[in-house]
Amino acid sequence: xxxxxxxxxxxxxxxxxxxxxxxxxxxxxxxxxxxxxxxxxxxxxxxxxxxxxxxxxxxxxxxxxxxxxxxxxxxxxxxxxxxxxxxxxxxxxxxxxxxxxxxxxxxxxxxxxxxxxxxxxxxxxxxxxxxxxxxxxxxxxxxxxxxxxxxxxxxxxxxxxxxxxxxxxxxxxxxxxxxxxxxxxxxxxxxxxxxxxxxxxxxxxxxxxxxxxxxxxxxxxxxxxxxxxxxxxxxxxxxxxxxxxxxxxxxxxxxxxxxxxxxxxxxxxxxxxxxxxxxxxxxxxxxxxxxxxxxxxxxxxxxxxxxxxxxxxxxxxxxxxxxxxxxxxxxxxxxxxxxxxxxxxxxxxxxxxxxxxxxxxxxxxxxxxxxxxxxxxxxxxxxxxxxxxxxxxxxxxxxxxxxxxxxxxxxxxxxxxxxxxxxxxxxxxxxxxxxxxxxxxxx
Length: 443
Ligand code: HEM
Description:
Layout: H1 13-19, H2 23-31, E1 35-40, E2 43-48, H3 51-57, E3 63-64, H4 71-78, H5 88-99, H6 104-125, E4 130-132, H7 133-149, H8 158-170, H9 177-201, H10 216-222, H11 233-263, H12 265-274, H13 281-293, E5 299-304, E6 308-310, E7 313-315, E8 320-324, H14 325-328, H15 373-390, E9 391-394, E10 416-422, H16 431-442
Protoporphyrin IX containing FE binds near residues 242, 297 and 358.
């Protein structure tokens, strides 16, 4: 047996905070390995990257998700008792509940609602001096996903609920006051959603034209555990929030997509020239490259179920293991020039379950791979179509730096747009011209 290489430091938490998304890859490069053992938050942790590591990480005989997420992440991002911490039969049963929400017809419904919201917001933007795309995207997505999920959202509550759902994501890597804001936001959101679950069960909220029986609120409120009992209302709330919160999180990819369009005007031109609709291959490649290239989830966490050997290394029972999602998406053995933004790489992509893993890998039904991946891609596509064809805008001077030590990361300015004009109103010739003009204005 070979001992797993160790980084020999007493604790690497400071290194993780300093290098953020690149922490595992930098250490792997330094130790010339794809696997090493370290201590994070004073706990022994095995870190690994690459396609072979991903394959073993998603072997459900070898790993458990029980207690794999640190408590501070459970209290903010994930919630307690949700699908993320389940294993085996219980996991597959709960996961099926999420997958029933992801039919092509239901995803189309969400796309339609989101597109409508973008159009409504664009009308308002034309009157504003400038807007922050990231902030607007969260609200657009909050309105769309609540309507889609059958969750009543009075106008007066839109901002509050958007902030609560967003705070759980923003606080996920934070310490101090921001972390406590995230905890409070979760408590408030769980109480809001728990009341709705109870209203469904009491017959006060029922299926209707706007709330089909296969909407998330009704499916989750009525879901039965393997023993035939209903989900505990608190856990049902955690699971419904597991649909609402990450849909708002797509606002981060949307912000990165706008950044990529801005920084690569030649790619924006090609998208504009080749695509009349969101299903065009150039939009698909662009969206996949945004998901591959930009940082979101740094890694996924699990624990060793029972000791086993892999590639000559012993994995001790109970030890925490992190799979480097960002590093695998930037692995030069899988991706030519991984640090170049190049959508065309997806023209001949060798699609696999373990190479492009920004939302986890493996099988949707059997593993913990994100059930929202199709929604994410569909909403990104429709938004890219909206940004490139339905509006024009300028990108004023601002700090667009993305700091890879921020977990989660975003462009510093959150992408400010000015002089937004809606094509629908016939106010401008073309977005494409607007973008080119904008590039010229900036140089
Ligand atoms: C910005 C877009 C998103 C990103 C980056 C993302 C990322 C991820 C990642 C990395 C995982 C964990 C994979 C693992 O542990 O192996 C995950 C799981 C999950 N995601 Fe997403 N996600 C996104 C959007 C969504 C959407 C739109 C939904 C629902 C509508 C969703 C619902 C979930 C759920 C319920 C899980 C837990 C699955 C399980 O434990 O089996 N996510 N996501």
